[in-house]
């Protein structure tokens, strides 16, 4: 069974600084998707960034980028120029290509932004 | 475009009762999936419906069931409620077409408390 592990229950960063959230996963599949979702205090989950495993290039979305290491099964999220609005729970998630609506989530990392 | 709408937002039930939660997906989205979120177990996949058919099912007992209507709206039902069913139940919708893997749009959830 696929598993996703986020080893940092909580992280904090100063506003405007850079922070990296860690995620490792376990799978025997070669084709899959990896995601970072954000859940602000309002509870609505929002997709931050997505990575297809067959793509070697790391995904980027404005201030958000990932470091995808397929061999190491590592998928970290880097947030640059942190803003107060980035404060939220961040979940790393995995899905197979064919079962893309069935996500396996990590336990989450609570990110605090200090002004 | 309206987002994913879940009703009710909050509800309190007692053990042994049953509950029905409703989810209206984003217009045009034909896939609806359900997740249970608890502090202990995190986010866990319940099931997914597409075109009124259950496509995927998570590892939950038969007390958890769902259905989807022809307008893509979905309901999930939990019978014989147990204390451990207290959770935030999240609904997510998606286009479920090739190349859109994993881009789920979540509702704000239904908070169920079982006493």
Blueprint of the fold:
The complex is a heterodimer of chains A (115) and B (115).
Chain A: E1 3-5, E2 10-14, E3 19-21, E4 24-26, E5 32-39, E6 46-52, E7 60-61, E8 64-69, E9 74-79, E10 88-96, E11 104-105, E12 109-114
Parallel strand pairs in A: 2-12
Antiparallel strand pairs in A: 1-4, 3-9, 5-6, 5-10, 7-8, 8-9, 10-11, 10-12
Chain B: E1 5-7, E2 10-13, E3 19-24, E4 31-38, E5 42-50, E6 53-57, E7 64-68, E8 74-78, E9 87-94, E10 105-106, E11 110-114
Parallel strand pairs in B: 2-11
Antiparallel strand pairs in B: 1-3, 3-8, 4-5, 4-9, 5-6, 7-8, 9-10, 9-11
Description:
- The complex is a heterodimer of chains A (115) and B (115).
- Chain A is mostly beta strands and 115 residues long.
- Chain A has strands at residues 3-5, 10-14, 19-21, 24-26, 32-39, 46-52, 60-61, 64-69, 74-79, 88-96, 104-105, 109-114.
- In chain A, the strands form three sheets. In chain A, strands 2, 5, 6, 10, 11 and 12 form a six-stranded mixed β-sheet that branches.
- The relative contact order of chain A is 0.34.
- In chain B, the strands form two sheets. In chain B, strands 2, 4, 5, 6, 9, 10 and 11 form a seven-stranded mixed β-sheet that branches.
- Chain B starts with a strand and ends with a strand.
- Chains A and B meet through strand 6, strand 10 and strand 11 of A and strand 4, strand 5 and strand 9 of B.
Please provide a brief summary of the model.
Chain A is built from no helices and twelve strands. Chain A is an all-beta fold and 115 residues long.
């Amino acid at each position: 069974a696929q598993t996703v592990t986020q080893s940092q229950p909580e992280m904090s960063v100063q506003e405007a600084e850079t922070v990296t959230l860690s995620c490792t996963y376990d799978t025997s599949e070669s084709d899959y998707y990896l995601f970072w979702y954000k859940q602000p205090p309002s509870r609505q989950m929002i997709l931050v960034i997505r990575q297809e495993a067959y793509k070697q290039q790391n995904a980027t979305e404005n201030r958000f980028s990932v470091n995808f290491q397929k061999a190491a099964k590592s998928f970290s999220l880097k947030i640059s120029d942190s803003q107060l609005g980035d404060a939220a729970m961040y979940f790393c998630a995995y899905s197979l290509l064919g079962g893309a609506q069935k996500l396996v989530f990590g336990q989450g990392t609570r990110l605090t932004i200090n002004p | 475009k309206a987002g994913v709408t879940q009703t009710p937002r909050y509800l309190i039930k007692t053990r042994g009762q049953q509950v029905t939660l409703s989810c209206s997906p984003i217009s045009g989205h034909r896939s609806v999936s359900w997740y249970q979120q608890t502090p202990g177990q995190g986010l866990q996949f319940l099931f997914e419906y597409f075109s009124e058919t259950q496509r995927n099912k998570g590892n939950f007992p038969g007390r958890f069931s769902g259905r989807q209507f022809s307008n893509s709206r979905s309901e999930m039902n939990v019978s014989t409620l147990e204390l451990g069913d207290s959770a935030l139940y999240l609904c997510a919708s998606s286009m479920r077409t090739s190349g859109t893997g994993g881009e789920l749009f979540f509702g704000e959830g239904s908070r169920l408390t079982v006493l």
